[in-house]
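Researcher: Next sequence.
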Amino acid sequence: MGLFQLGCFAWIHLVLALTVTGLNRTELFDYGVQHGDQILEPGPDQNQELALDQTLFFYKSSFDTVYISTNGFIAMDSIPDEAEYLGKMPASFGMVAALMGNLDTSDGVGKVYYRQDSSPATLLRATKHISQAFPADDEVEPTHVIIVTWEDVWPQGLLGRGDGVATSEGNTFQLVVASMESASYAILLYPRDGLHYLSTPIGGRIKPLEVGFNQGEVSGWLWSSAGEYYRVSSDDVRSIRQLTRKTNSGQRGVWVYEIGTSPFFTSIHSGETDELDFEDFEESTPAPTTTVPVPVIPEREREWEGEYEEGPDYPPVHPPYETVTEDWEEETPDPPTQAPQVPVDPGQFPVYPRPTYPEPSYSEPPRYPEPDQPEPRRPSQPQRPQVVVVDTDDLDVDVFSYNYETCANNWQKCSSFADCRDYSSGYCCHCRPGYYGDGRDCVAEGKPQRMNGKVTGRVFVGGSSSPLEFASNELHSYVVANDGRAYVAISTIPASLGPSLQPLASLGGAIGWAFALEQPGYQNGFSLIGGRFTRQAEVTFHPGGERLSITQVFKGIDEHDHLTISTTLEGRIPEVPRAATVQIEPYKEIYQYSRNIITSSSRRDYTVTLGGLGVQTLSYSWRQTITFEGCHHDQGANQPPSSQQLSVDQVFVMYDSANQLIRYAMSNKIGSIHSEGVENPCFTGRHGCDTNAMCRPGEGTHFTCECATGFTGDGRTCYDVDECRQTPQICGRHAVCSNQPGTFRCECMDGFQFSSDGRTCVEVERPVNHCVRGTHDCDLAERAQCSYTGGSAYLCSCLPGYQGDGRTCRDIDECQPGRCHGDAICYNTQGSFTCQCRPGFYGDGFHCTPDSHREKTACEQHRERALAASANTGGYFFFRPRPAVGQFVPSCDPYGAYEPMQCHGSTGQCWCVDREGQEISGTRTGPDSKPSCIDQGVAPTPVGPTPRPDVSPLAPGTSLLFAQSGKIEHLPLNGETMLKDDAKTLLHVPDKVVIALAYDCVDKVVYWSDITQPAISSVPLKGGQPTTLIKTDLGSPEGIAIDHLSRLMFWTDSMMDRIEVSKLDGSHRRVLFDDNLVNPRPIVADPLNGRLYWSDWNRDGPKVEMSNMDGTDRSALVSEDLGLPNGLTFDPQTRQLCWADAGTRKVECVDPYTRQRRKIVEGIQYPFAVVHYGSNLYYTDWRREAVVAVDRRAEKEVDEYLPLRRSRTYGITTTHPQCLPGVNYCSGSNGGCSHLCLPRPGGLTCRCPDANDGTCVERDRQ
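Model: Next structure:
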């Protein structure tokens, strides 16, 4: 194995990307298939051409096509093999490199999403980023964006190694290119938890990722030359790490650049807003470099360095910090400073023979997780405002997070028991008298301190080849601060591990040091650095050479005044027999202090007593490093001694097998390394003061006891002060006081939150959706649309056919020369126009032909035949045919269609006809009356500019949609009441019979089936052109169900006798069932639980069935006392599956889990479909030609809606403004499936479509 393979993946600095306050993943632009994204084919070096809906400007050129690449960029030209450009920039083609490297998305690990978008909400977000980056530009109005998202992508070569490394998150970042009429901008977004590696392997080397804009080759008069390469990152990984921490747009992690303009272009223009809304992590933003067209000197390539030390044969342990030595300098005007070094003497510890253990067997090598970042501290009372601390680099911690700011804007970052003070270079926090700490965390002197946390990791015991896991075991500690006693307990420790942990009393060593009893002139750890630090310890046991690594992250005081700790253990410890006891001798440990780092090392002896089998004395070597952030602005602050000695005695260890607890106790003092004897009881801990009291030393051996702040008494006995009872109004209005030992806590009531002063509870400003409430100032709904954009913001835009700013919209007169045919007349209408051929011509208005040229319609031919028959009788009147007596001659309208009402000229009878001229039964009248006939000749679909399918915008809130032959009607609901007067036609679909209806609450899209062609189609609820999704291999699709979580569509086909599934766009079709089905009609989905329900109205054996969405566990749910179960609906909130039966004339419900069945109503007429909302069921009825409401609780009919145009009513569904909350196994990233992700209870199944292209992989997942 070569050096490159050996290094492998210390290669990419997996643990380098520290989390700091910055961009959240949720703040990325929306992405995923549910937002209309396409997914790039998986694998390395993949690319896809994307034809643009609007021109993109890049440097001096414009482009109508881009190419999306797996390798973290988009290109303006076709992309060559990656070997031609990776590590060889500048490339010969134009590109925007968001985070370019040797990347891979094979095996379902990582995805690349892309789409074009021009929705108002997306354009508004892009406008906000650009305007914030370029505040002087006042005409930023993008009209088109390209959104490319690389989600959890990994370096090529890491996938498929079999060691589980790639099971964690890869890099996630996003590129948004926003274009206007004459300019384009690139918005680069790097979420704070999105970068998990900073380099990738390229050509046998490890090279940093790259960010920049490459112009590509530029053609000259005689030859082409390399264009400009505007590089944002540099050749060291630090510049990549800063992408999440810095900005040029005012928001950390967001970078904005003007990348092209027309007609003139000078250079790439970087955003101009360095100021952040929060404290800066670093002082300066790296200036991007520009590579001009001159020969490029290859970057210095560094071989992977380092060798493995000889040592015991124990499982490899990866350090929690970067082990690669980088030779970059600090980005600061000051000379670079070297981080404090920890002196290590190779001869300090004796070397013992190395034992041989069996080869360990585990799924992946033990690794140190990156230490958790300190979390913001929540206020524990009104005077305790929030503290926010930002981590710096691992050991190079020379920048205090307060940075160059003042108390005026940052006082709330101090503890409520601290004062904020300004200095020439910044501010610092200082605990008030009676408290100690670093100013960010302060605790009362003399008060006991509690600590809580979790222990994770795994440990090998003795020669075992299998590790014992720590699964977030509880750690609890209690310290009596006035005498230095510390108690530590870890729970749920099995007997196979507990006895062997007894020597590790040092697990509580940092706790003892932090709250050690202070000797005169010396300070314990909490007094010096507070409660936010990281401790890294390495333990080597002798004589066996076993090694254990301990990482503890102290996260500060939480809202309960407890210090929180996370502990990770990795490595091997010697085995201690179960019956043995362990005694640890008192020891001393010297702590060496320097700027932001504290080190110590020692050797400790312990005795193992094996009952009657003897005593064994062993030892271990101990080295530890404590890193923290200090405030160095106070140059006059007293500095601690460079060395202090921690004395630990009265060490007690025990494994409690009955309760599975490991317990440690010890007494700790911090003082001089010269072990000066101090006899005062305050410094020996033998004073007898209450545990909640301070010991105040006097002359000689005299002392006094004083109760800690928040307690009262004589010092020997102290009682908690109940501040809430003594001062009921201490928390102020709209707040609740909660007493705690030594302090109290204020919490705002529901609906209130702390204001910026951290004390006053103010009412929460709840976002208002003005579009729904109707409090917006957009123009009338007939002319404008209100689009909710989050918070209380909205956007007004004019509807098609109108122009204006959305608040005032004017009709556009589309009747301009050339709109209609030359032989047609244009009629302007509100929001649209129509074209009509002049008399003597026929056509649709866009194409008109003289009447003499066109083929006669059926009505005209019928009329001619009737007149010709009359002509044969020889009767003429002024040379025109005259009908014979008793001869019927049809009437045709100007377009040649049958008039809706036909009359017999001789008898005087009249009747109604359909579009084919066939008499409608029951409409014939006598000579003295005429029937009211409906125009069956619905106008054909116009060609060219058409009116919107919806008659008028829909009202907000939940509504019913139901089908009536060739149209879909919209019936708003107010609560559960049908607003009959507000009913409107949503969509006209001439010559079709709409049967099934379904609704996607995510994209607000209506799906329907038509049995005349047949087809399955969709249309946006807000209006637009219908889209045919499926039109082949269909017989009679009569039921549709939508899984909005998995983005799936299911349907039944009563002619093909099968049930199918596809993606919402109709792709990836797969037959789920094609057996034991006769007349399947309604189908409904339960996305949260991955279940399907459908009914079959087979007259010989009707039934209601269910299965998982992947087709497994099919069973009959109801098969008795059924007739024609036409309608079906499932209510996930009540877990009721209800159906309407046209045979039994009942509506019934059943719980699919308990099988309990109940009747709702009976005696109904002929139901077709049913849907639920609230406590009501709504069903359509063929005979009543109505929508009927039934109260499930009262078990009776409560309302009825009769449409103005009476005809059979078919499918029915509800449109909800918001989806019900919840997820299933396929909600995110398609469940990791390549094609169809089908959820089921407790897991998912990846399935291939019936038309498999060979790239699909089927598998089951739990």
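Model: The two ends are 36 Å apart (CA to CA). The chain has ten helices and 84 strands.
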